[in-house]
Design goal:
By secondary structure, the chain is mostly helical. The protein has a single domain (14-207, 239-429), classed as MFS general substrate transporter like domains (Growth Hormone, Chain: A), CATH 1.20.1250.20. Helices cover 79% and strands 0% of the residues. The protein has helices spanning 15-38, 40-48, 55-84, 87-104, 113-135, 138-141, 147-178, 183-208, 227-238, 242-273, 277-305, 307-327, 331-359, 365-393, 398-416, 421-429. The longest helix is centred in the middle third of the chain and has 32 residues, at 147-178. The relative contact order is 0.16.
C-alpha cells in the first residue's frame, strides 16, 4: 500500500487535504519544542527570573494556569464549533493568537517575569485550542480502520516541524554565542523564528483543509460564558460511553507523565545531568527524530496490532525511560533514556488521539475532542505539579521526582485494561439522541 493511499481516507478526501491537515502538526510542534521544552523554559528560569528559588515553580504554575483555562473553555468551544460548523474558523483564530503571543515573547528580557508569564499563558491556551480543533478533523479524513496510521502521519510529520524550528534556532544560537552574545540577546530571536515557521506552515493547513461539518443547532451552546455548564453537560453525556471514559482516565495518568517530559526535560538535563544549553538543544533535536520515527511506525502498527496494545507498549517504554533517567549519572545514560522517550512520545500521543476519534460520536467530534483536551490539560497540571511538589518536599531531589513519574505511566497502563475497542466504537456509532443542550 502506498504511503498516503486513498484506501486509508474517507470518500471524497484528497491526499492534498491530508497533507494540509498534517501541516498543522508541523506548524505547532516548533512551539512546544522551542518555547516549552528546549529554549524558553530554561531561559525563563535562568535569565528572566535570575535563577531565583521560586523560578521553576512560577514556570510550572504559569503552565498550570493555562491548562486550567483550556480545561474550562475547550468543551464549550468545541460544542460551539459543532453547532456552527466552524472548526476551521476557530482554528484560524487560535493560530493567530498563538503566533502573536509567541512573537511577543521576543520582547521578554531579564526581570520581565510577569510579561513572560502572561504571554506564556496566552500562547499555550491558544496552542491547546488549536491542537484540539485540528484533532477533531481526523475522523472526517480517515477511515476507522486507518485512523492510527493517518494520526501517525500527522504526529511524525509534526516532529520535523519541531526539528526545523529547533535546528534554525540552534544554528542561530551557536552563531550568536560565537559573536559573544548572551541569552538575553539571542533567545528573543529564536521566539521570532518559531512564530514565523508556525504562521507559514499553518497557512498551508488553512488553505487546503476543508470544513465538512454542517451547522447543527441541536449541539452546542450560545456562548463561551456557558463553559462550566456545557462542561458538565458534555461530561454527563460522555458517561454513556464507558470505553471513552476509561480512555479519558488513562489519558489523565499517562499524559501527565508526557507533560513532565515536555516541560521539564531541559531543566532536568541541565541541573541534574550537567548538560549545557547547546547540548540540551541537540538532545531535544535528536529526541524529535526518534519521536517522528516512533509516531510513524506505531501509526501503522497500531492499526495492525490494535490501538490498545500499541498504546500499552508505549507506556511500558515510558516507565523504562523514567527509571533509566532516575538512575543514570552520565550524559551517555541520559541519551539512552531520551532515545526511548522519543520513540514513545509521538506514538503514545498519536495512539490516544486515534482512539479518541474512534470513540467519539460523529456528530459531536469537536465537543468530544474538547473533553479529550480537558483530560490532557488536567494531566498537564497533575504531572508537572506533582514533580515540582516532590522536588520541593525532598529538598530538590529531581531523581526521585522523575522516578515517581513512572508511577503515572503505570496507572495509565492499569486504566487502559478495561477499554474495549469494539464496544467503544459501536457505542459511538449507535443512534443515541443527545441530551438537551443549553442555549
Amino acid at each position: 500500500m502506498a504511503l498516503f493511499s486513498n484506501e486509508a481516507l474517507n470518500p471524497g478526501v484528497r491526499k492534498r487535504e491530508v497533507f494540509g491537515w498534517a501541516m498543522y502538526d508541523f506548524a505547532n510542534s516548533g512551539y512546544t519544542t522551542v518555547v516549552l521544552t528546549a529554549v524558553f523554559a530554561a531561559y525563563f528560569v535562568g535569565a528572566v527570573a535570575g535563577g531565583a528559588a521560586w523560578a521553576t515553580f512560577v514556570w510550572t504554575l504559569a503552565l498550570s494556569v493555562s491548562h486550567a483555562l483550556v480545561m474550562l473553555t475547550m468543551p464549550a468551544l468545541g460544542a460551539w464549533a459543532d453547532r456552527h460548523g466552524a472548526k476551521k474558523r476557530l482554528l484560524m483564530l487560535s493560530t493567530i493568537g498563538c503566533v502573536l503571543a509567541t512573537a511577543g515573547l521576543a520582547s521578554v528580557g531579564p526581570g520581565a517575569v510577569w510579561l513572560a508569564v502572561g504571554l506564556v499563558i496566552l500562547s499555550n491556551v491558544c496552542f491547546a485550542w488549536g491542537e484540539s480543533l485540528i484533532a477533531a478533523f481526523l475522523p472526517e479524513l480517515a477511515r476507522p480502520s486507518a485512523m492510527g496510521r493517518v494520526s501517525g502521519w500527522g504526529w511524525s510529520f509534526g516532529y520535523f516541524g519541531g526539528m526545523l524550528a529547533l535546528g534554525l534556532s540552534l544554528a542561530y544560537v551557536l552563531w550568536a554565542q560565537a559573536q559573544g552574545q548572551k541569552a538575553a540577546e539571542f533567545v528573543p530571536v529564536t521566539m521570532l523564528i518559531t512564530a514565523v515557521i508556525f504562521a507559514l506552515a499553518a497557512s498551508v493547513t488553512l488553505s487546503l483543509l476543508n470544513e465538512r461539518a454542517q451547522p447543527n443547532p441541536q449541539v452546542g451552546v450560545s456562548g463561551v460564558r456557558d463553559s462550566l455548564r456545557q462542561l458538565r453537560n458534555t461530561f454527563h453525556h460522555a458517561r454513556r460511553y464507558t470505553d471513552y471514559m476509561w480512555l479519558l482516565a488513562c489519558a489523565v495518568a499517562y499524559q501527565g507523565g508526557v507533560a513532565v517530559a515536555i516541560t521539564l526535560a531541559a531543566i532536568y538535563a541541565e541541573q541534574v545531568i550537567g548538560f549545557v544549553q547547546q547540548e540540551t538543544m541537540l538532545l531535544i533535536f535528536v529526541l524529535n527524530i526518534a519521536a517522528a520515527v516512533g509516531a510513524f511506525a506505531f501509526g501503522y502498527w497500531q492499526d495492525r496490532l490494535g490501538h490498545k496494545l500499541a498504546l500499552g507498549i508505549t507506556l511500558v517504554g515510558w516507565m523504562a525511560t523514567c527509571i533509566i533517567a532516575a538512575l543514570t549519572t552520565t550524559k551517555g545514560g541520559f541519551w539512552y533514556a531520551a532515545a526511548i522517550a522519543g520513540l514513545c512520545m509521538g506514538s503514545s500521543q498519536s495512539s490516544g488521539r486515534a482512539m479518541a476519534g474512534l470513540f467519539a460520536p460523529p456528530a459531536q467530534l469537536a465537543e468530544f475532542y474538547g473533553l479529550w483536551t480537558f483530560a490532557t490539560r488536567l494531566a498537564s497540571i497533575i504531572g508537572p505539579l506533582s514533580y515540582g511538589a516532590i522536588t520541593w518536599m525532598t529538598d530538590g531531589n529531581q531523581r526521585l521526582a522523575i522516578g515517581f513519574t513512572a508511577v503515572l505511566f503505570l496507572v495509565g497502563l492499569v486504566l487502559l485494561q478495561p477499554v474495549n475497542m469494539a464496544r467503544g466504537r459501536a457505542a459511538a456509532l449507535a443512534e443515541v439522541s443527545p441530551p438537551a443542550r443549553t442555549g
